[in-house]
Specification:
With 337 residues, the protein is an alpha/beta fold. The protein is built from 13 helices and ten strands. Strands 1, 3, 4, 5, 8, 9 and 10 form a seven-stranded parallel beta sheet that branches. The chain has a three-stranded parallel beta sheet with strand order 2-7-6, covered by helices on one side. Strand 3, helix 2 and strand 4 form a beta-alpha-beta unit. The radius of gyration is 20 Å and the shape is globular. Bound molecules: zinc ion. The site of zinc ion has 6 residues, from loops.
Length: 337
């Protein structure tokens, strides 16, 4: 009995030391993480006022940092160090195909205490797919993250392009997976300028007073803006909250088998994401142009997803940055998300 009590005291001591140690490592003026919100994903709740008004889990002044479309070999580590300096915890909605290529980065994101969530296998617009094909895109993404991470993902999902057909929503509800839209859009894919990203975020935040913020950890403009932006947010009185799941995501055995084994070749073969970036970095475009085609999926020994051939052709990669300004995301023309 006495031994058990001693062990419990030691446990409590270790627990209390964790935040102190973390606090000591924060940079000066760090925004920190003010609280965790544990999300019960039973029944597939939806969050983010842009598409799902009414279910606001944030208090005034609170923000949630989210990063989509990674991991990215250079930019994800940069973003992780900035978050560390600020002791700020975030959620990463990763593309399965990229996660399989950069499994070391997937594990690193989790190791630093962030939430690892899913964003499909290859970033297809699910509205262009049949219900079965969309479900397969979602499930391959979930299995890929688990395979890369060596542990379950959070049952948190974001739709590519925020395109959320009813059949895919029904599937996610049946899988007890929460759907996350956004409140604030950094529009980081439209600009190379960190200043523009900072202005976009602060303007929307000041109008709404709180929100789930969308960034992309494949965008240099976000990597350039994040440190100063967190400093500005702290100065303006905002605080960062961290979303964590009550229960882990469960994978389906069939998709675990189909998703294969993590390797660098998987990400080089796919790169569906940069194809749609209006201002994708030049090196991403080169790879995207040279590596597209059905061989991408075959290279990973994944059977083609039913109806996947009906996916829309990639849009032109270089366009004037503001050409789609004002387009509705539901139009499927907007390629930003
Ligand atoms: Zn995306």
């Amino acid at each position: 009995m006495r031994t058990r009590m001693f062990a419990a005291m030691l446990g409590a001591l270790a627990w209390s030391l964790v935040p102190l140690e973390a606090a000591a490592q924060c940079g000066q003026g760090a925004i920190g993480t003010s609280r965790q919100i544990e999300i019960d994903t039973t029944g597939g709740p939806r969050f983010g006022q842009v598409q799902y008004p009414g279910n606001d889990i944030l208090r005034p002044g609170e923000v949630v940092l989210t990063f989509d479309d990674g991991p990215h070999k250079q930019l994800t580590p940069t973003i992780l160090s900035i978050l560390d300096q600020h002791c700020a915890k975030a959620t990463f909605f990763m593309v399965g195909q990229r996660a399989m290529g950069y499994s070391d980065l997937v594990r690193e994101v989790a190791r630093r205490g962030h939430t690892v969530a899913t964003h499909t296998w290859s970033h297809k617009n699910l509205k262009a797919l049949s219900a079965d094909a969309a479900a397969a895109e979602i499930e391959l993404g979930i299995s890929a993250i688990q395979k890369s991470l060596g542990a379950p993902a959070a049952p948190f999902f974001r739709f590519p392009y925020l395109s959320d057909p009813a059949h895919a929503q029904a599937h996610l509800r049946s899988r007890n997976t929460a759907m996350f839209s956004i409140d604030v859009d950094s529009h980081d894919f439209r600009t190379r300028s960190p200043t523009v990203v900072m202005r976009n975020v602060m303007k929307q935040l000041n109008a709404k007073g709180r929100g789930i913020i969308l960034f992309h950890d494949i965008q240099p403009s976000t990597a350039g803006a994040l440190g100063a932006l967190l400093t500005d947010m702290k100065a303006a009185g905002y605080s960062v909250v961290h979303l964590v799941p009550r229960r882990p995501q469960v994978t389906l055995a069939d998709f675990d088998r189909r998703v294969g084994t993590p390797s660098r070749g998987v990400v080089a073969a796919g790169l569906a994401v940069p194809q749609r970036s209006i201002v994708a970095p030049a090196w991403e475009q080169r790879v995207a142009v040279s590596q597209t085609g059905p061989s991408a999926i075959q290279a990973n020994r994944i059977a083609p997803v039913p109806s996947a051939a009906a996916a829309p052709a990639p849009p032109p990669v270089e366009r004037p940055a503001r050409v789609n300004q004002g387009d509705d995301w539901r139009s499927n023309v907007f390629r930003g998300w």
